[in-house]
Amino acid sequence: MTNSLLSYTRQASQAARFIGQGFLVTLDHMNRSAITIQYPYQKLVPSERFRGRIHFEFDKCIACEVCVRVCPINLPVVHWQFQPVQKKKQLKAYSIDFGACIFCGNCVEYCPTNCLSMTEEYEMSVYDRHELNYDHIALGRLPACAEVDAMVETSPILGK
Ligand code: SF4
Ligand code: SF4
Questions:
Q1: Residues at the annotated binding site for [4Fe-4S] cluster?
Q2: What is the pTM of this model?
Q3: Which residues have C-beta within 8 Å of that of residue 93, sequence separation ≥ 6?
Q4: Is 147 a domain residue?
Q5: Which of 8, 76, 104, 130 is deepest in the core (most CB within 10 A)?
Q6: DSSP string, 118-157
Q7: Residue nearest to atom 2 of ligand 1 (CA)
Q8: Distance 69 CA to ligand 2 centre (A)
Q9: CB atoms within 10 A of CB 94
Q10: Is the Cβ atom of 101 under 6 angstroms away from ligand 2?
Q11: pLDDT-based confidence at 152, cuts 50/70/90?
Q12: Structural domain that includes position 17
């Protein structure tokens, strides 16, 4: 009888300690700002080094295909034609399929003419995955800047 009473008391005090610890965690979180935002009515401004949709400058590309070789899945498609008079390649078309791209940034890093750059654009949802295959015209479109988006409500997380 005495043993069972002791065991009951021990278990009750242990349970009370766990409940107290749980309350401390709850109190700790009550002091913090909210992490979630009401997307799409609120949007976060991506950080400076955010790796979003790739931007491509057609006129700067020399069709060297370095971007293809450094891509883990050889993704960029570079269509070019050799010009015998000028003795150099002429770029005809360029495309990247964002349905397969992992946004590693290798192509941007190694491009010798800096014609590729990563934007802060991340809203790329489509109903047909084939629409994610961007040609050089789609890649050349300037990114929508989150800061000038009328939908953007500044986030308390970023302190703005
Ligand atoms: S690495 Fe740059 S310059 Fe070379 S083909 Fe790719 S995008 Fe064009
Ligand atoms: S970001 Fe990475 S995966 Fe995407 S095209 Fe460039 S190298 Fe390939």
A1: 61, 64, 67, 71, 101, 104, 107, 111
A2: 0.76
A3: 77, 79, 135, 136
A4: no
A5: 76
A6: E-S------SSGGGGEEEHHHHHSPPPPGGG-TT----TT
A7: 111
A8: 10
A9: 24
A10: yes
A11: low
A12: 1-32
Ligand 1 centroid from CA 74, angstroms = 13
| β pairing state of 54-56 and 116-118 | antiparallel
Angstrom CA distances, 24 to 1, 29, 31, 34, 67, stand at: 35, 9, 11, 18, 52
pLDDT, tens only, 60-116: 999 999 999 999 999 999 999 999 999 999 999 999 999 999 999 999 999 999 999
Residue 73 Cα to ligand 2 middle (Å) = 8
Whether residues 81 and 114 fall in one domain: yes
pLDDT digits (tens, 9 = 90+) for 101-122: 999 999 999 999 999 999 989 9
Helices and strands, counts by H and E, the chain: 4, 5
- The verdict on 100 and 68 lying in the same domain is yes
